[in-house]
Write a structure and sequence with these properties.
This protein is an alpha/beta fold. It has helices spanning about 5-10, 25-30, 40-55, 65-80, 100, 110-120, 120-145, 155-160, 180-190, 205-225, 230-245, 265-280, 320-330, 360-385, 390-400, 415-420, and strands at about 15-20, 35-40, 60-65, 90, 150, 195-200, 255-260, 285-290, 300, 335-340, 350-355. It has 16 helices and eleven strands. The longest helix is centred in the first third of the chain and has 24 residues, at about 120-145.
Length: about 425
Amino acid sequence: MSGAQAKSAVICGCVGVIAEVSYEALKKRNTQGWLREFYDDLNVVVSRIREARKDCQSTSIGYHGNVVKLWERLAQEYELTGELLADFGSDQTSCHNPFNGGYYPAQLTFEEANSMMAKDPSQFKTLVQESLCRQVNAINKLACAGMYFWDYGNAFLLEAQRAGADILKPSENKFRYPSYVQHIMGDIFSLGFGPFRWVCTSGDAKDLALTDSIANQVLEEIIREGNVSDAAEEQYRDNIHWIKQAGQHKLVVGSQARILYSDQLGRTRISLAFNRAVNDGSLKGPVVISRDHHDVSGTDSPYRETSNVYDGSSFTADMAVQNCIGDSFRGATWVALHNGGGVGWGEVINGGFGLVLDGSEDAARRAETMLAWDVSNGVARRCWSGNSNANKTIRRSMQHDPKLNVTLPNAVTDETLLDEAFKGID
């Protein structure tokens, strides 16, 4: 299991409940501090949910067992008591690889499943699909009662459909539930916001705390200036809330590293402020900046990151390649271009970078030049596909940066023109 969901639930003031079939994985996240408590008895889990909700207690509750049984128990509680114990729900099983360890069927124990997938893969596949149908049935009951469910972009909806689950809207060939990127994150990416990262090479926790403070000051200054859209300001405020709390939640496992959602303006100003702090000795060593692939520009993934690019180009890999190569000659210290990650091999191309801020004027120049490309490349692509957020964002970016010149698309006001243009073409 990932610890991110458990930790983020607490940061957001929620009661988070996460199921995990592997005791070792669950215990590890608890020991590391990502998960606050866990139980193997669903009666105890349900009791703790009720207690925490009643007491307005933010916590993360782990269930050592199969997520299908958790969903079914929550649905049963609603049927028996009328009490909806889950307001929001999603699934993060690795359904892009459901028959080789990405999804564990509810009918088997963890050990039994590991054995069967090797010895009898055909029967294992049958049980996985039966389990997916059970899971969807429970989710549907809770969703009808008011729970908001979304797909994480892990092929859960796709595999549920293949299994024959009741996952489509009645009389429509569309999924019942929104997808995390296509319907939620896509518009945030189109604002230019995504997971910006940095690592303090000194390895000193005090340096990380100082970078948190610097990032917070930069974002608050941007808001005070007032030259951002309402949608962008909302993102800035969310991330100010996050960065102020980051240190106290003890998120560091190895390197002294941090992640923060920001746009081109925020990333550039934060990077320049870091570089100045290295130059004047406030930070004991250089800072390496980077980002997640799950970002505005770095990934071509038609079933996740670029799923809300509707002009047909989502199935091309040009954006990730352009990002990687463009970053390389705009000053990145290193770049990477590779396949796979998140949704599986053959389904995604990722382009990434690392840039060392050593306090020099050259590092500052390279950061400004490279970050402008790294973010605006993706915003422009999304603008061309018709996203209104991206259109507004790239226009603002050109106002901030006179050197940025992006050809803006012309909206098709009469869609019958397209039909006329392609008439007679087989």
